[in-house]
Input
Amino acid sequence: MKKSISLTINGTKVDAEVDQNITLLSFIRDEMGLMGTKEGCGTGDCGACTVIIDGLAVKSCIYLAVEADGKEITTIEGLSIDGELHPIQQAFVEEGAVQCGFCIPGTILSAKALLDENEDPTEEEIKKGIAGNLCRCTGYVRIIKAIKKSAKVLQKAK
Ligand code: FES
Ligand code: FES
Output
């Protein structure tokens, strides 16, 4: 059975009819065509599908689209403005924190949710903030360095 939902994705209001059992991940990718949100495990373990919902980093593969009714969603496509990379994205590039790239959209969104809440996190807080995002390539050192760097850039820009 279908249900009407109304939500905001990357600043744009979206009204849709969705199957009650479709995940937010499927809705974002298959209905909205936003392919930056990745599907890894599909069971809430890898973090590749992370999006921000009302300010919190959430794994969209274990979140139903109907639960997103009335909520504000940010995907990786919503971070850059007028083609300019967001400072977190820029820092990931500059620090060489991107290897295969599969985990990166989810990790960056977890970092954004963290930095929106805590502008100057400690290394431990950064590790905790991205604890749900698995990366098979980087060993996390460069990722953590990039998040520290972007925290400084964002603080300066305030
Ligand atoms: S695809 Fe959602 S946590 Fe792995
Ligand atoms: S860069 Fe390859 S999984 Fe993280």
The two ends are 47 Å apart (CA to CA). The longest strand covers residues 2-9. DSSP finds five helices and five strands in the chain.
